[in-house]
Amino acid sequence: MTLDEMNAFMALVQLQSTRETAELLGLTQPAITRRVQSLEASLGVVLLDRQTKPLKPTAMGRRVYRQCERISNELALLRQLVEQDAPPSGVLRLGLPQSITDIGVAPALMSLTHRYPHIEPRLSSNWGVNLLQGIQKGIVDAALLLYPAGNIFPEGLQSKDLGAVPLVVATAAGGGPLPTTLAACHQQGWVLNPTGCGFRGGLERALKDRGLPMRINMEVTGNDLQLALIADGGGLGLVPRYLLENSVYAGRLRILPLQDFQPDNRLWLVHPVLPRPLAEAAASFGSTVAARLGLTAPLAH
């Protein structure tokens, strides 16, 4: 009985296809068949019902499968224990919100690869809710997310507050008197990201709480396009202050100091339990992005 035989058996039970199992493990179909038959011979039991299509485990096969899973999990824990003090290596899948992909990311990526030369970063950009789902599904290893202070993330995820991200209501420079309340903003309307953007969701909740309607002039994707349209008088926008201040359109924009709406998000590093070396690499990346954005980390209690 070998680990290779157990792995072949578990994969065959999961995929229910000798062809797909062979492709997954990089073996031939006869090699998969031989490994499973060797495991059966070692245990003296029949593990698969070969009269059914797709293949299904026998009653004893299901019990053996569960035990093989336990052994596989224990081996994974053993490897993690041994690798705790090893330098970070391998692929690190990092998720980023749309609003920070233009600023601070390239220097942080260079810093990460310089400090951890054996790490292979893979970056993806999406709305916060989609990135969070990606973490839960195991598609993303760690993500930088913009959520309010004190946000409670799903069970099983670890989170670190990297600092405040002030949001501002932006309008075109010049013109007449500025609105000072959310209600007074209705006449100008909004230039916002599509549904799924956390900033838009926060604005929608604030308007709903006050019994106010939302007037959307345009839905756009992309920071530069949004700010360009606002600068051209297309409506109001809700953007991070650092995005406005670093924009090529900064001279054509101004901030509305609304009396009843001062939104404030935080930048969070969120990930499941990771091997310590990978967790350290993700933390280094998050801290560098936060520093490039000029964020001040909260004081430790």
Describe the structure.
This protein has 301 residues and is of the alpha/beta class. The protein has 3 domains: 79 residues, Winged helix-like DNA-binding domain superfamily/Winged helix DNA-binding domain (Arc Repressor Mutant, subunit A); 106 residues, Periplasmic binding protein-like II (D-Maltodextrin-Binding Protein, domain 2, 3-Layer(aba) Sandwich), CATH 3.40.190; 89 residues, 3-Layer(aba) Sandwich (D-Maltodextrin-Binding Protein, domain 2), CATH 3.40.190.10. Strands 3, 4, 5, 6, 9, 10 and 11 form a 7-stranded mixed sheet that branches. It has a two-stranded antiparallel ribbon with strand order 1-2. A two-stranded parallel sheet has the order 7-8. The longest helix has 25 residues. The model has no long low-confidence stretch (mean pLDDT 87).
Key terms for this structure?
single chain, alpha/beta, Arc Repressor Mutant, subunit A, D-Maltodextrin-Binding Protein, domain 2, 3 domains, seven-stranded mixed sheet, two-stranded antiparallel sheet, transcription cis-regulatory region binding, DNA-binding, LysR_HTH_N, transcription regulation, LysR family transcriptional regulator
What's the helix and strand layout?
Blueprint (H helix, E strand, L loop, with lengths): L2 H13 L2 H8 L3 H15 L4 E2 L6 E2 L1 H25 L6 E8 L7 H11 L3 E8 L1 H9 L5 E7 L8 E16 L9 H4 L4 E3 L5 H12 L6 E4 L3 H9 L5 E4 H5 L7 E4 L7 E9 L3 H17 L9
Parallel strand pairs: 3-4, 3-5, 7-8
Antiparallel strand pairs: 1-2, 5-11, 6-9, 6-10, 6-11
